[in-house]
Amino acid sequence: MIKLPESSAVRARVIRILHPHTKWGRTTLWSGGLSVLLEALCSITGSPSGSKLNGWATFVTLVFAFCATWLTFRWVRLKFMWRLRHRLIVTYIFVGVIPILLLLLMACVGSYLCAGQFATYVVISDLQSALQNLDAANQALATQLRTLESSGKLNEQTAGKLAAVSGENFPQRTITVWQGEDGFLLSTNGAFLNLPPKKVPDGIKGDFIGFVIDGDSLHLRVVKRYDEPGRTLTVISNVPLTPELLRPATSLLGSVTLLLPDRRGNLEIPPPANNPAARPPVEAGRVPAPSNRFDPAFRSYTLFKAVDWQTGKSQDVAISVVTRPSMLFSTLFATLGDNTKILRYGQLGIAILFGLIELGALLIAIRLSRSMTLAVAELYSATQHINRGDLTHSIPVRNRDQMAALEQSFNSMTESLVKLVAEQKQKQRMESELAIAHEVQNSLFPHESTEFDSLGVCRA
Questions:
Q1: Region of 312 on the Ramachandran plot (φ > 0 left; ψ -120 to 50 alpha; else beta)
Q2: CA–CA separation, 135 and 132 (whole Å)
């Protein structure tokens, strides 16, 4: 059977709600009433969303929501934190659980950042290595062409033969040779290309090595220039950055994408699909299947500089790498060979050991908190017995700590109270008996003098 609250209790609660004693309560009550009034006025007058009345109604509603949320939080905190057990649980969460979670979060974020930067570093290193090889080949070719040009024997045929010898590592390489204002373009196998040769922009002085944005594509380009009195020789080697150049990195990582800035010079990550000024990205590789359930794919980005060949200005190019932890682990510890498994199992064992230590600490904390809360609960129950007049109630003492000493002290206090009550009752009984004896004694003596002819009685 459900017991309904008494009308007096309901009346007292309604009065307490309508007449709050705290500033937060009064603010919540008045802001709530004002919010209802303003919302009703907005509904009656049909006020649009951008009007002042609607703005004030929204502001007052937000104030009411904040105050109500704060009061609800205080009420829940008072109700929840009344028990010592809940206080200990919250204390353990703040002292033991939250720091561990923060450390794990920091480790995860740090691992993600380090793994992402390592993945992009592998791509950048491969491209830089290709660029250095291209520069070495271009310098060797430029040195030979300079010797021919000094002797007056430099022409397209001899330059093509030398280019064919030095270009076997770059199948898509093109070489531009400028003799003063005259230039020609060769392919990597030395064939003459009937195309206009690329000129060096005015913003680039001297030798150059780097990444170049030319048109809608990205290139590896090196420039070697010899300025001598009366003559100038410039040799330009160019290799378009294609998926084939990214293949060594994709074999180690997975999927690699180069994101170029649009024709307006803006770089957006990820690039929007409806940008008419966008340049096509360079994509290579694919993400392999996971080695286990704890091998998720993740994406990381980094930036590097490239030069716009038309303007000579530097622009940002983004590298996007999608890989898995297993591939990064294999790449990072590739020098260990078969010992990689030993390292992996060692890390797993350390993680399991730390997990067991944390689990043991959690169990110990639970046991200690349970012993304290149980002792406090028994003390509280004992005080309720004493309050009801049950002085014979005693607390069972199970441990030998300070809480057990407090329980023993409480039991001694109740025993002393029992003895004190018994002595008080004995004293009251003796006083009652003495009073009765005094009354009996008084009743045995006559209150008036009695005279006899032959006997006289007088009071002493």
A1: left
A2: 5
Name which of 230-239, 296-305, 316-325, 392-401 the model is least confident about. 392-401
Q: Are 264 and 277 in contact (CB under 8 A)?
A: yes
- Put the strands of the sheet holding 255-259 in their side by side order: 192-193, 182-187, 174-179, 231-240, 217-228, 208-214, 298-308, 314-323, 255-259, 282-284
Q: Which residues contact 315 (CB under 8 A, 6 or more apart)?
A: 213, 261, 265, 267, 305, 306, 307, 308
pTM above 0.85, yes or no: no
C-alpha distances in Å from residue 282, one per residue of 23, 60, 219, 221, 258: 63, 54, 11, 17, 5
Q: Rounded to the nearest 10 degrees, what angle do helices 243-252 and 98-150 cross at?
A: 140
Burial class (CB within 10 angstroms; exposed 0-12, middle 13-18, buried 19+) of 127: buried
| 3-state secondary structure (DSSP) of residue 238 | strand
Instruction: Say how far apart CA 451 and CA 443 lie, in whole Å.
Output: 20
Rounded-to-integer distance, Cα 315 and Cα 324, Å: 29
In tens, the pLDDT along 172-184 reads 888 999 888 888 8
More confident position, 123 or 347:
123
- Among 301, 248, 258, smallest CA distance to 279 is for 258
Residue spans per domain, the chain:
16-80, 106-324, 333-441
- The highest-confidence range among 320-329, 379-388, 412-421, by mean pLDDT, is 320-329
**Section 349-375 average pLDDT:** 82
CB atoms within 10 A of CB 319: 22
Q: What is the DSSP letter of 93?
A: I
Give the distance from CA 184 to its chain's centroid.
57
**What integer pLDDT is reported at residue 255 of this predicted model?**
93
Residue 234 three-state SS: strand
For the record, the structure tokens of 391 come out as 């002085």
Euclidean distance between CA atoms 202 and 211, whole angstroms: 17
User: What whole-number distance in Å separates Cα of residue 196 and Cα of residue 361?
Assistant: 75
The stretch 380-394 carries a mean pLDDT of 79
Q: Could you report the per-residue pLDDT of 206-245, keeping only the tens digit for each?
A: 889 999 998 889 999 999 988 877 788 899 999 999 999 8
- Rounded to whole angstroms, the Cα distance separating 130 from 125 reads 9
Q: Which of 81-90, 218-227, 417-426 has the lowest mean pLDDT?
A: 81-90
- In whole angstroms, how far apart are CA 347 and each of 2, 95, 100, 330, 344? 59, 27, 18, 14, 5
